[in-house]
Amino acid sequence: MHAASREALERLKTSLDQGLNESANTVEIGATTGSELFEVVELLDSERSLRVALVDSAAAPEQRVSLIKGLLAGKVSASTEEIVSAAVSQNWSDTRDFRNGLVALGRRALLRSAEAQGQLERVEEELFQLARIVEREPQLEMLLADKSASEDARRDLLAKVLYGKVTSVTEALALQAVGRVQKRPVEDLDALCDEVAALDGREVARVRSAAPLGEQQQSLLADKLEKIYGRKIAVHSEVDSSLLGGAVIRVGDEVIDGSTAGKLQRLRRSLA
């Protein structure tokens, strides 16, 4: 995202947070606003001329706001109309940044709703586990990444996997992500998990261990990693019996391989 767009998005995030914090019903308004922002993005995806008109710097901000208000009147909540109108009044570098900005705001609104319910960490864990499920099922990931299939078809497929197993916020975030896949579905879901952690000032440590980690082990590991990296760490783990023992830890682009399999592999290389 270009500099002008980043500045616009930061202003809008602050405005969104302020509005939700001042609301007497953050849970409902956040959930509604997030879902409706995703719907606005789908409308923009199907109307290129509209996208262009809404970021046209040659037109006065008032003109752009009037255009979007006319389109949204009576179709979305007051909070959604307000944030989209504020977005249209900003200067965006291009239509892609504008669209991605609305997606980011939709996600933030949903996550603020989850936060107000005390479900933020649960959403984070659900997204991590969902990414692992997709990662272990190549056929499923291939179908979710199939751009020849319609957005609705990809969402319907994932909805069947998610049905009754995750929070409504997790479901909304995941379905939006697979509707228009940016990278691999696994990478998009992992990016969402990172985004949830970042909202609480944390970075995700993805751990593969030969045996399940208990709560105390995860807490001790988080403490050690926080001392190493100098920031708050959210530990998410999965079992991988192929490691034979120990664990492999990934924080960002860094990998710490303390597994038995990793040690054996290094030993073989040293003897070769």
UniProtKB/TrEMBL annotation:
**UniProt GO cellular component terms:** plasma membrane; proton-transporting ATP synthase complex
Q: Where in the cell is it found?
A: Cell membrane; Membrane
Q: Name one GO molecular function term.
A: proton-transporting ATP synthase activity, rotational mechanism
Give the main location: membrane
Q: Which UniProt keywords apply?
A: ATP synthesis, Cell membrane, CF(1), Hydrogen ion transport, Ion transport, Membrane, Transport
Describe its membrane topology.
Peripheral membrane protein
Q: Does the keyword Membrane apply?
A: yes
Q: What does this protein do?
A: This protein is part of the stalk that links CF(0) to CF(1). It either transmits conformational changes from CF(0) to CF(1) or is implicated in proton conduction. F(1)F(0) ATP synthase produces ATP from ADP in the presence of a proton or sodium gradient. F-type ATPases consist of two structural domains, F(1) containing the extramembraneous catalytic core and F(0) containing the membrane proton channel, linked together by a central stalk and a peripheral stalk. During catalysis, ATP synthesis in the catalytic domain of F(1) is coupled via a rotary mechanism of the central stalk subunits to proton translocation.
Q: What family, per the record?
A: Belongs to the ATPase delta chain family.
The name this protein carries in UniProt is: ATP synthase subunit delta
Which species does this protein come from?
Corynebacterium anserum
**Taxonomic lineage of the native organism:** Bacteria, Bacillati, Actinomycetota, Actinomycetes, Mycobacteriales
| Name of the coding gene | atpH
